[in-house]
Amino acid sequence: MSVFVDYRERMRSRPRASLGRILDDLGSTVLDVAASPGDLDSEVTGVHIFDPLDELIVPPGAIVLAVGVRAAADICSLLRRAPEAAGVVVKLPVEVDEAVRATVLETGVAVLGLTRAASWAQVAALLRSLLAEADLAEPGEGPQGDLFSLANALCALLDAPVTIEDRSSRVLAFSGRQDEADQGRVETVLGRQVPERYLRMLDERGFFKQLYQSSEPVYMELDDDGVINRTAVAVRSGDEILGSIWAAVREPLSDQRRRALADAAKIVALQLLRERAGADTQRRLRADLLSTVLAGGADAPEAAGRLGIATTRLCVLAAQLTGDAADDPARGESDRQRFCDALALHVAAIHPKAAAAPVGSVAYAVLPLHSVGDEEARAVRVAESFLARVGPRHAANIGVGRLAANLSQVARSRADADRALRVLRARGTTGQAAGYTDVHFESLLLQVADVAAAEEQAPTGPYQRLLQHDAEHGTELAATLRAYLDAFGDVTAASARVHVHANTFRYRLKRLVEISGLDLSDPDARLIVMLQMRIFGR
């Protein structure tokens, strides 16, 4: 057991992580200092996710993930409520004014900016993995072998066949000698998943609850014919359950073997966290590269080359969830990350060089396409297929940009995708995909509306007179005109749309002509008023 004994001794003497070291490890592409009280040598003890609906209890040295906090006043309030924290993390851009700087100096709590391409779930996992490495490993030392090696080593120490499982009881690794266990263990190893009937039995007897509430190995007497008892220990990172280790035993372990199993759980936790951190690092790198490609500029060719799409024709997809997560920002962030992961998987199955990454609330994907014609329509079909697959879990829309024949056109394709997505959002639809060319004119109208709003322009001419009359007399002449124009002058259809008799509708139509001076026989006059209705949205 020397490997576990030595490991425990190293863990006792290992210094904990400082805020400065964590920032160095993650790099400025993920976290950067927005406001500092001075040195960044404060000890970091854990990660705390801020929830404005819960009482704020922050242990000394915690890094607070300020989900949903944006304004300078809110940052100051949070700093004062958590004066013992090591740092507060806010999504970029961070609003730092003199009040924030003064509060940082007063409390000694640093304010850090998190890149918008990263999710809260992602940074929480990265921070936890770094803290675990500070607790469990020497600088620059890798994990003690892979999970299968650890399982075999533990099998020899415990004299019992071992499995290492994740939180969902899926088998991550197993030792030799499984044939010495029972039929349930054999089924578990062969299927790489604990069979449902055994999961149900363990849950009904309260063994899972006991396991996850204890930091020590738990002995389970199963009392079933042909079933060997189990000793298991939870694999943890702080308060997060990562998985568990299971040994098939016929009697309780000795104290020495119990300590070996408990020490093994720490090593397995380190391995799992490093594997997850590696996956998160790769995801972050691809997200940064993709963001650079989408933005265009001098660095885009190098980023595209690293993604493998430098010489590829591609379309940009912009996907956004339509559900409202305002009541639970942390859950909304988690949903967006899972949605983006699903999109990345979907496009990667179509083309190995496809990539996806979140930027703010939008998940962008670049989809390489072969030059066979009608590429945008094909990309729309890909988007529709994805929405059909995730529809039961994620309500979303996707905008598709025009084909980018070279890197210089990628930024344009992204702008196209954003505009198509905005049209779908303006329509109030969900579960829809649209190519830019299909919604081009609607997009132009929205852009004109933006210009009108920015210049504080207002309706004029006959339409303005109708709106003024409706406001002063409580009438609905503008709605009458809209119904008439939408029905192409069909009074019967238009009157049904506004739920009035046709004769009443004709009277209203006559009144609105008298009041506004609009000539309904003039096609240019009809076009002008229809455009004003669309632009000003009244």
Oligomer: single chain
Assign the CATH class of the largest domain. Answer: Alpha Beta
Considering DSSP H and I runs of 4 or more, what fraction of the residues is helical?
Answer: 40-55%
CATH topology of the largest domain: Alpha-Beta Plaits
Query: Which strand-content bin applies to the residues?
Result: 5-15%
Number of domains as seen in the coordinates: 4
Mind telling me the C-alpha Rg? 31 Å
CATH architecture of the largest domain: 2-Layer Sandwich
The count of β-strands is 15
Give me some keywords for this one.
538 residues, alpha/beta, Beta-Lactamase, 5-stranded antiparallel beta sheet, elongated, disordered N terminus, CdaR-like_regulators, PucR_C-HTH_sf, DNA binding
Structural features, described:
The chain is an alpha/beta fold and 538 residues long. It folds into four domains: 136 residues, HprK N-terminal domain-like (Udp-n-acetylmuramoylalanyl-d-glutamate--2,6- Diaminopimelate Ligase, Chain: A, domain 1, 3-Layer(aba) Sandwich), CATH 3.40.1390; 133 residues, GAF domain (Beta-Lactamase, 2-Layer Sandwich); 158 residues, Reverse transcriptase/Diguanylate cyclase domain (Alpha-Beta Plaits); 79 residues, PucR C-terminal helix-turn-helix domain (Arc Repressor Mutant, subunit A, Orthogonal Bundle), CATH 1.10.10.2840. It has 20 helices and 15 strands. The strands form three sheets. A five-stranded mixed sheet has the order 1-5-4-3-2, sandwiched between helices. Helix 1 crosses helix 10 and helix 15 crosses helix 20. It is elongated, with a radius of gyration of 31 Å. It starts with a helix and ends with a helix. The relative contact order is 0.07. Belongs to the CdaR family.
